């Protein structure tokens, strides 16, 4: 009978142990087209909130460095901080990564928020100070007076 099992397994084309063992059950399940129960590991996914925190943090930092977009930097900074906190909490879940990305998003969002707020405060202090505004206006007038007129520029151009 043992020779019948071995000859049967050789006829199928593999050297499988008898189906009463665990390896034999696995082979029998594969032969019948049924997938055996396995524990497959899936790659961990990065938290979307952490990624968006980094995106909004970098956008806040960029907007803060351009004075005219500083109010937008404050909004992006707040969004980045909120998403960074959510991303940190989501990174604690099983199968979710992104803790470092969330921390990076938090850091850049806080920097963007602070820089944007500082630029807004500086510009508002400049605009609200009458003596500084007068100095700025006088300097602009002096620079305009030093500019050559259109006729002077035409005279210096080579004749065609």
Which properties best describe this structure?
7 helices; 160 residues; two-stranded parallel ribbon; mainly alpha; single chain
Overall description:
- With 160 residues, the protein is mainly alpha-helical.
- The protein has a domain at 45-119.
- The chain has seven helices and two strands.
- The chain has helices spanning 2-12, 22-31, 48-65, 70-91, 99-128, 130-146, 150-156, and strands spanning 45-46, 96-97.
- Strands 1-2 form a two-stranded parallel sheet.
- Helix 3 (48-65) runs antiparallel to helix 4 and helix 3 runs parallel beside helix 5.
- The chain is elongated and about 95 Å long.
- It starts with a helix and ends with a helix.
- Mean pLDDT is 81; it is low at 1-14.
């Amino acid at each position: 009978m043992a020779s019948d099992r071995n000859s049967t397994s050789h006829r199928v084309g593999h050297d499988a142990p008898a189906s009463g063992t665990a390896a034999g059950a696995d082979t029998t399940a594969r032969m019948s087209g049924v997938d055996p129960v396995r524990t497959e590991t899936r790659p961990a996914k990065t938290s979307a909130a952490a990624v968006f925190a980094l995106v909004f943090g970098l956008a806040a930092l960029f907007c803060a460095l351009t004075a005219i977009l500083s109010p937008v930097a404050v909004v992006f900074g707040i969004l980045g901080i909120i998403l960074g906190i959510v991303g940190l909490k989501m990174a604690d879940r099983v199968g979710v990564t992104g803790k470092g990305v969330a921390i990076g998003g938090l850091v850049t969002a806080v920097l963007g928020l602070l820089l944007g707020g500082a630029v807004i405060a500086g510009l508002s202090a400049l605009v609200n100070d009458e003596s500084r505004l007068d100095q700025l206006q006088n300097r602009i007038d002096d620079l305009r007076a030093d500019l050559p007129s259109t006729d002077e520029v035409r005279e210096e151009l080579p004749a065609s």
